[in-house]
Structure formats: C-alpha cells, structure tokens
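Re: the request from the purification team.
They wanted to know what the chain is likely to look like in 3D before they choose a buffer screen. I agreed to run a prediction and write the result into the notebook, where they can find it.
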Amino acid sequence: MRPGDRMCWLLCVSSVVGSAVGYSKIWLFHIVFLTYILLCGRSLVNYSWKLVSMPVTGDLLKLLLAFGGWCLLSGAWALNGWYWIRYMGYLVLGGGLLLAVVCCVRTEQAYSKVLGPLKLAFLFALILGLLEAFTPFRWPTSPYSDYAQIFAREAIDYSKFERDAQAVLRTSPTSFWGNSNAFALAMVMVSPYFMLHPRRWYGLLGLTSIFVVVIMTGSRGAMAGYLVGLALCLLCLRYEHMVALFFLALCGIMVAPLLKNSGYSESPRLAQISTLPGDLGRYFAQVKPAVPPVGDSIDVRKESIVPITGDSIDVRKGLVRLGIDAFLETKGRGVGAGGSQAVLEAGQVEGGIGSMHNFWIEVLVDGGVIAILLMCALFILCGAGLRKIIIGSGGDFCREQARILVLSLVIFSVGCVSVSSPIYFLPMWILLGLSVALIEVERRRVVGDRSHEP
C-alpha cells in the first residue's frame, strides 16, 4: 500500500461529506485536500504527467487540462476578477480530486478499496436524508437547522413563509450538501449501484429509498435523471423483472396525483413531481429575451432589464435567457470563468439567485463554445471508454463497474440541469475520476494480457 492511499480514501470521503463538516466557508475537505497536496503532491504530478502520454486516459486528461487552461485564459476578459479567481479555485479543487482518485486507483484491488469508503459515505448520506425527511432531526450545518448560525452558515428564516410552505421546508432533506437539489442529484447518481446490485431485494430497497428522498426534495431535474437511468438500464444494460416493475410503479405513482379523485392529489410533493412532463415543456419553450436585444452590453443597468419572477420554472427560464443573451453578446467567447454570476447580478432575479441552475448553460455562458465543447468531449469520451469495457472481453469486475459508471454519467448529464454551481459539485469530480481510473485499469490489464501471449 502506497503512503498516499489512506489519504486518498479520506479525501474521497471528505468530498462526499463536503460542507457538512466545517465552519463558514472552510470545510474538512479543504483541510484534507491541502494535507494531501503537501504529502503527495509530487507523486500526484509525476504520475499524472506519465498518464498524459497514455492512449485514451491521456486524451481525457488533456481535455481536462485544456478546459482549465481556457478558463485560466478567460481571466483576461472576465466580468468580475474575484469570481474568476474563485472559479479557478473550484477547478483546482475538483481537478485535484479527480487526479487523486486516478493516482490512487491503479488496480482492481485499489479500485475496490476506494469504493468501499465511498459506498459507506453515500449510504450514511441517504440514511441522514431519510431522517431529515421523516423526523425532526437536522444536520447542524444545514440551512434548515436551528443551529446553522453557530457554524457561520446562513439559516432559513421560516417566518417569511406561510404555514404550509414552512411544513414543506422543514421536511426537505439536504443531508451533507445543505441543498435539496444537490442532495437529490447525488443520490440518483449512486442509484445505478442498486439498479445492478446482485441482491435484488437490497437493490430494490435502495432504489425505493432514493425515490422517497427525491420526492421529498421535490427535485424534478433529479427525478428526470433517475427515470432516464432506470430506462437505460432496462433497455441497454440489464433487464430485471423487479427493476422493471419498480419503474412501472414509479410511473404510476407520478401519474396518480393527476387523477381528480386520487388521494395522492392531496400530496404537494407528489403533485409537484407529477408535473414533470409539463414542466419540461415549459422549461424548453421559447421565452422572451431578458435583455433588450439592441443597444445594451453585458454590463446593462439593472433598471433596463425585465425582472425575473414567477414560479421555479419561470425563474429558471429567465436565468437561462439571461445567460444565453450574455453569451450571444460575446460572439461565442463566453463572459469569462465565473462571469455567469456577474450576469445574474446585473439582472433583477427574484431572491438574489447567483447561479444558472443548469450545468451545461453555466459552462456555455462562462467559457463559451470552446469550454462547452471540451466539457462535452470529456463526458462523451469517458462514456465511450466505459462502453468499450462493457462490450469488450474484459474481466467481470471492470465490466460491472463500467455499467454503473456509464449510467451515473448519463444520470448526472440529465439531472445537473437543476443544481446550483455544479462546477463545485464534488461527486461529479469523483465520478469522472473513477471513470478515468477504471479506463486506465482496464488498459493496464489488456496490456498485461498481451505481454503474456505466446
């Protein structure tokens, strides 16, 4: 066992725990990351440099470096220097986490050892979310907790909401992430582990628990990703009767609130999720420009912008429209890393929202065409590399893990449309790190097998 392996396990677990353990903006993850860099930084850089010259794995790392380099260069025209610095900090932490996973995981045994603590961390997060949804318990650092201010965190002021809204907020789980949408996305990202679990009843229990917490969060983006992942699993990877029945049951539960005489129609959470098809149509429907198309630059005055108000879907449409308008004004270059927040601050967004709440739009607005192409290429090449493992003649372990990871990539790609500031969503970087690591592990196995051929 290499000296940095245990530190890598601790780094992965702390990245799942995230903001749940820390004070103000300083998290346990930041301390562990800094310690890891001080102890293992040289070996991390040396090994990463060697991987750059490898086929497939090297291409993936080059895409990551190119994305980071372009974001670094965008500081020359960034709308806000501080936001650019913070964005680059996010990339360093996320990219460093990815490289740490790749550096630690070099064999199937090492992959299993990293996977063990991660499974326990996500399982604890799921149990914690269920406790928050159905008991008065709240994680102390959650914004919905009465103790949030002790940890220098911004707490929800329940007095601003009506009684019914207060009841919903008090039972909205956030677990480690302090945000319902982020928690829901993290849970559906790990759902493929249960979809493909050999113990069917254990897998069904996990899938049901994840469905419950997603319902309690009201995250329609996460639910869309969850349903897409289940459908893809059944159609392309492995058909299981129990999973198929579970999928049909979910569809039935989501449709039930639409029935006039259904008892489910009284549930505000099920009613919110049941509007998913209509909400998707509204979200992608054409909207009026948020910024006047003639005469105004990106630094348009607040009073000249149409205020963004309405329900959640209306606000999200307005955020996207603001971002697209700003992107078009740059002629495809982007407003600079972190600049999307400056764009939103220039608009009259209800509630002072500072994130696009859509990963792909945020990357497009911040980094322009080049950044979105690089990020899409990174996800597509990861998926292609994992698919090659699935259809190849590799070992059972790598094939099974590749199935799980490719489903998680698809689920994240869909569900990330509802998360704020996903560039600092650490489970995404763990997912990418495990994907790159597994591709490299399989490459090493194939090379090793060929070297033993007569």
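For the purification team: Confidence is low (pLDDT under 50) at residues 288-307.
Please add any questions underneath this entry.
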